[in-house]
Structure formats: C-alpha cells, structure tokens
Amino acid sequence: MGHSCLRSLKLKLQLEVLELGVLKYGSNELFQKLISSCPVLYSLTIYRDYADGLTVCDITSSSLRFLQITDGFLCDDTDQLKICAPALEHLLFKHHGICEISMEGLHSLMTVELDLNCVDCDDIDLCDLLVDQVIQAVNRAMVMKFYHSTMETLNGSLAELSVPFDRLTELYIEYDFCDWGRLEDLLHWFMKLRVLHIEKFEDISRCHWTDPTRVPDCLKLNLQHVSFIGFEGSNRVEYELIRYILEHGSVLERIQLRGDPSESEKRLLMHQKISMFRKASQSCQIEIS
C-alpha cells in the first residue's frame, strides 16, 4: 500500500488479516489512519526497521486478537511503541534495540512470545526499564516463550521485580551459555507454573548451576511436566538441574529428555544415572529419547 493510497484512505476497511512488510509510512499519522480504518481487524503482522519513518508506532484496536511485531535494530531511545488492544490474545514481539514502550489493557492475553535483545546497549538502566515495561504489560498471559536473546537480556533485576504472574502455567525457554541463575528467578516468579519446556540453543558447558537457597513454590506445589530438548548428558550442569527438579518436584508427573535418538547406548547410561537421583514424587516418569 503506497503513500498515495494511505493519504486518501477515508473508507472503513473490512480487513480481518493484515500483514505489513517493511514500508516507509511518511508520518506517524498515516500509520494510525491505516490501523484505525480497520475496525474488524483480527490479525496484524508488522515488520519494521529504522527507515520506516515512524517515531511513534501506535497500535490501538478494540478487535485485534493476534499481533506480531518484528522490529529491526531500533536504537533511538526517543522512538515509541504504543499498544492498546484489550481483546488481544496472542502476542509475538521481536524487538532488537531500545525504545520507549507502552502496553496497556492487555487483560485477555493467552500466549506471549518474547524475543528481546538489547544486550549491546550501553545504557544498562534503560535496558532494565525496557524489560520491566514489557514484562509488567504481559503478566496476565497463561503461556509464555522466552527466546535465547531474551534470556540474555534478562539480568540481575529479575529477582527484584514484584509483578504477579498469577495466570501463567506454561513456560518455554531457549537457553545458551548464560547464567542459569536466571532460571531460578523465573521459577520464583511463576508460582503457578505447571509445564516447563527447556530448549538448549547452543553449548552450555560454560554454565553453572547452584541450588537455590529457597525452593521455588512452583516446584513444591504445581510443576507437573518438564521437557528438555537438546539434553546430551555430557556435562554436569544438565544433570544438576534435573537432579534438583526431581528432588523438589513434589507433584511432578513426567520429565522428558530429548537428545540424539541414534545413541541408544548413551540413552541407557543417562537413564541409569538419573534413576539414582532421589525423587520427591515417586510417580514421576522419566522419558529419554
């Protein structure tokens, strides 16, 4: 849709699905006019970069249920992203860089996927503020996925957040070599967590795991299913994590460990080793594939 079409847009469009590639909008007002001209919009996908001409990306819609935003490297902290979508159920937010973020009224959220990357930002306080703004805005979600870049962006301020996550029951995380203490903070946050999926993004041999001083409530009360994709059984960290979960997972029903399916002998050795760990839940099943 070109500039001339946007400028002359006066009719209400009956679009339910809209996908916007990287465009040059010319002004913030033209973008707002496009969104407001779609009163029954159900799904919106936006790809952005620094040259799209927007300093304020305002997504206000009472009908929107699915939203995907993929930002390029927006490093100007004067840029703004505003989302007001009370009916929104699914949010996929890929944001690389720094900008001011405002998300309001997201009370209907069911699933959220976050790919936040500002680890190269020189202003650590500004990076912390961005993470805090996003996390507080999506705390009503029931299912969340943190991409590996998000796990890197999260830092020591995790433990200081007081945002209640009283609906979240399922969490997906991608992990690489970052400090596994962040996983501990997440478990303390998500007290009602029932399902935890861990996917190893790359080698974690440089990681370390230290047993928390206080057992997270979700382990004692709610966590039932844990899956670990990329489990190799080749370093101590993987076993230490599984040992801790087994020792304190009082209502745990199943742990699934997925690695190389061709190494049957290695799988047998892993199963033998893990079977020796003490289990708080005697009914917990261990599956290695």
Question: What would you say about this model in short?
Answer:
The chain has 289 residues and is of the alpha/beta class.
Short descriptors:
289 residues; alpha/beta; three-stranded parallel sheet; 27% strand; OLC1v1013761C1; FBD; FBL13/AtMIF1-like
Describe this structure in words.
- The chain has 289 residues and is α/β, with parallel strands linked by helices.
- 25% of the residues lie in helices and 27% in strands.
- It has 8 helices and 14 strands.
- It has helices at residues 3-7, 28-36, 124-137, 148-153, 181-189, 217-221, 236-248, 264-275; strands at residues 17-20, 43-47, 56-60, 66-74, 80-84, 90-97, 100-104, 111-117, 143-146, 170-175, 195-200, 225-229, 254-258, 285-288.
- Strands 1-2-4-6-8-9-10-11-12-13-14 form an 11-stranded parallel beta sheet.
- The longest helix is centred in the middle third of the chain and has 14 residues, at 124-137.
- The radius of gyration is 22 Å and the shape is elongated.
- It starts with a helix and ends with a strand.
- The model has no long low-confidence stretch (mean pLDDT 82).
- Residues 217-289 form the FBD domain.
- This is OLC1v1013761C1.
Task: Outline the secondary-structure elements.
Elements: H1 3-7, E1 17-20, H2 28-36, E2 43-47, E3 56-60, E4 66-74, E5 80-84, E6 90-97, E7 100-104, E8 111-117, H3 124-137, E9 143-146, H4 148-153, E10 170-175, H5 181-189, E11 195-200, H6 217-221, E12 225-229, H7 236-248, E13 254-258, H8 264-275, E14 285-288
Parallel strand pairs: 1-2, 2-4, 3-5, 4-6, 5-7, 6-8, 8-9, 9-10, 10-11, 11-12, 12-13, 13-14
